[in-house]
Amino acid sequence: MVAKFETNQNPIAPGDLQQTYLSAAGHLAAAASYGQLIQQQPGLDVSLVDAGLGVLIGAFQKRMRDNAAFFASSIVPNMITLMADGSNLCAEVAAVVVQPASGSSAAVLFRALSDTTDSTHVDARTLVSHVLVSQQANQDIQASYTTALDTAIAALGADAQAISSVIAALNTAAQQNIDDIVAGSVALGEAVTTLIIGVLTTVKPASADGEEGDGSTEFVANAITVGSGGVGQSSQAMADLQSNNTKLAVAYQQLATDNALLAIAKIVEAQNLLFVGSLSSLSADVKSLEQGWLTAKAAFDAFASELASASPATAPALIREVTSAQLSWAALNTELDLVKKALVSRGGLPSA
Q1: What's the predicted TM-score (pTM) here?
Q2: Which residue among 169, 191, 308, 348 is buried most deeply as judged by most CB within 10 Å?
């Protein structure tokens, strides 16, 4: 009798967990970079220029800093914990030894693996919850801010509205570029753990008398400008990202000629939207991780039952499945260790 599964079809192999972990690491790096930008935004005292908009920007920045801090203090450590959980499970799988006549004792080992996997699934579910909380907090404050900002830009006329639309489209394209960089790296079996933050342009808000500021209040428009490494899809996405960033710098300056304050408000909004976009991608990944670990638990339980009832004729095939699966879990372990070390060494907040 031959094993009924190839390595990639083996029910006790990690399945899509390796690919999903790599994707999650890339989106975590992107969200962490944007969160860092938000935390570093200077507070702007623009009340003398436009009291209403000044209060709105100030409140929005404070809420966003709180949300970015929550991401750094809760979501990043939780993700690293989930990677450590994965590494521990990989080590347990590697330690399993199944002998032809030891079906019952081997079944006990796989039920123990199921228990470990269940604990990892709980950690994954906690991470999903925290990501959703962060997403919701950002979305709740985004709607009112965007509405007020759109109203203010509309008052400047059709040209300003057109530029604002261009900025929105370019930021959407930039987010897609980041997702493509991550996807391209995952396709090569790698993870993007370093995303470089660069300066797009600077804007000086006007003073109360309409004169340009003295430079001390200069607002820096930062963004992710490139990722580490990359070939093929990632390489093209990096080139596209650089091109879109160049166009964004021009558009911000065009809007600033009409109203520098609104240009700054648009930059603040853009950084938040990109943060939210990366959180959305990360959310999809961690939901897949939660499901992946739930699937692994069920697979270990089912395999334990097969082992318990194995006969001398069927045991060799089951042993081959174990050996095949161990190779896949070892490959996952290698990737997890590399990504975990990269994130921990950078404090979970990659920057230039």
Answers
A1: 0.83
A2: 191
